[in-house]
Design brief:
It comes from Xylaria hypoxylon. This is Pcc1-domain-containing protein. One of its GO terms (cellular component) is EKC/KEOPS complex. The protein is of the alpha+beta class and 114 residues long. It is built from four helices and three strands; from the N terminus they run βαβαβαα. A three-stranded antiparallel sheet has the order 1-3-2. The longest helix has 25 residues. The model has no long low-confidence stretch (mean pLDDT 88).
Length: 114
Amino acid sequence: MTTAIDPDFPCALTIDVPFPTSRLASTALQALQVDKELSVLVSRIFTLAPSKDAVEANNTETSVLRAEYKATTNRMLRVAVNSFMESLNLIIEVMGELDEDVLAARGQAGTETQ
């Protein structure tokens, strides 16, 4: 896939974050979309995409959170991506502590090892 460079936003980065289920990916997307980008010098788009395994299996489950960032400078891109990573880390930590599916999976893993 070739994308043209946007003259207003010459610096770009796409980050794919895989989640175990599409529900968890969707939850992360909803949590991240609440906060608007703080700078007009940065553009971002969050979407859900299927994993490579899902594509190969003709499965349409979208369990990958895709974050596409564009910025006017490398510095602005770095600052925006660092903020995204901090928010994503918090979201994943909360999911690990509170999400019923994650807790159930942990419980099953714990009983299987005993």
